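User: Predict structure, ligand adenosine-5'-diphosphate.
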Amino acid sequence: MSGPDPQTVVMKFGGTSVADADQIKRAASRVAQAADQGARVVAVLSARGKTTDELVSMAYEVSGHPHPREMDMLLSTGERISCALTAMVINDLGHEAISLTGSQAGIVTDTSHTKARILDVRADRISEALDEGKVVLVAGFQGVSTDSDVTTLGRGGSDTTAVALAAALQADVCEIYTDVAGVFSADPRIVPDARKLAVVSFEEMLEMSASGAGVLQLRSVEYARNHGIPIHCRSSFDDGPGTFVQPEDQTMERPLVTAVTHSTQEARVTLTDLPDRPGTAGRVLTVLAEANVNVDMIIQNEPQREGQSADMSFTLPRDDLSVALAALEALRGELDIGEVASDSHMGKVSIVGAGMKSHPGVAARTFSVLGDAGVNIEMISTSPIKISCVIREEHVERAVRELHTAFELGEDAVRREDVAGDHRPVVS
Ligand code: ADP
Ligand code: ASP
Ligand code: MG
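Assistant: Predicted complex:
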């Protein structure tokens, strides 16, 4: 008589969870424990500690504009180191472990070096190794492009590797182990009384990741939502349950505001004296898209009178500023642009909550709180469940704390799981 099918588990360990030898041993024994319990285990590893930052610095020590293909060759080494080391420990613990690069694991991407998107996961080699009873370790954050070059998936990309593998292997669980106990109502590094959220809907988590909550990479949440993969984001340092990111439970009481998120990595570009012709803004944004720059908020000031020129401002990730400026400079030959000004010290604070949809007044409250705190709002954008304000970088921490307090999100607040009755995560 055969027992129930074994569970397939994908476990991802972030950089801080494999930073030194002891932590690698701890992560490895957690993986081995899951294998001991009979699960088919795939572990995705990130580069150790600050390795990726150090590799980036190394590149800039030798080149002002590192070639993107070579950058990916360099950056992909960080996760390979973690993978091989963890495999060694798991072998010592008496399991058969095999480490694979992203390419060996069948992660196929497009050709956008340093920000590649996963196109396909050909997980046959992983499945075969699992069938042979092996524990499989996969180097996160990387793949192989349709041109057969090594690619990386953007900062934080190991989360996406884990979710993509979970989808391809139809895993029962996708666990993201990190240095905090789950997804919090604000970054716990800035707000000490931030509260761990038991459950967050995909919809809310997408807005949170897009507005700066780096605990899960945005693409990993998109991938999880598109493939219906629930994520369990939890601590690598203790065993308690973390946060389940999963489809929205329509029966649940929806909080007005779930979280305050922030980013201190924004830049703003202002173009003045643009020709007042239909299609000008489209042309500017096309050039930026072709340079693979993700523009966030956009404001265009329409001219008051015909024949006058227009102005346009937009925000973008600070890391993309030099590429964006170069692309705009190249556009000058084609478009008569007056001045291109930029400010690289911008930040953003956002509030996210599914309950906002049905409750007016949240925006008014947000602006009043920031106004009372003396924080000037430079740009605003909204979605049905998010309000974002671009503010100066130096005001970000204060703004986050003020909003977190004003919307009563702290530890002492009434918890939505306390009032929501029998609401349970769909996976445990
Ligand atoms: P890893 O190396 O495990 O991938 P990251 O540094 O990418 O870890 O993500 C974890 C960090 O995300 C936490 O240390 C925390 O400071 C930050 N963070 C930002 N916003 C949030 C949030 N809302 N909830 C939890 N962590 C957050
Ligand atoms: N090591 C990569 C980074 O630091 C990928 C990751 O950690 O997810 O961004
Ligand atoms: Mg991360």
